Amino acid sequence: MVKSGCGSLKSRSKKLYAAFLEDVELVARHSLDEESHHALLELFFLKWEAVETSLEVKTALDSALNYFRKNWVDDSSVCHWYQGSSPLQAMTNNGLERHNAVIKSESYCNGQKHALNDLYHKVRIFYFCHECSHFRR
After folding, report:
1. Tell me: the pLDDT tens digits for 111-120?
2. How far apart are CA 60 and CA 105, in angstroms?
């Protein structure tokens, strides 16, 4: 099976692949509106098209760039994946993960499994008893 797109880049250069994904994430996070999104994408493509590497890796990188452009930039049905296209929506689930970590902490469940009824009680205390000065067990 011949890999194409980002899979081909990942199999030939994990370091370049990670940097590529990091730049895609930066474009997504720092595009405040459609104009800045287009400006950042232009810079993104200028940077990545100018990368000098071996022919094999360059071919894989070009394939990844073409895939990204065709499927995530030029396709009008999915091109609004940047932060500015939905400014009131979270880009990550960090808030949810923070709550999850607290619920699993020593003060609540101590990483132990609990019956549904007990877990429900602990979660209810977490969400609705913030005025409590300490955590109940």
Report:
1. 778 788 887 8
2. 44
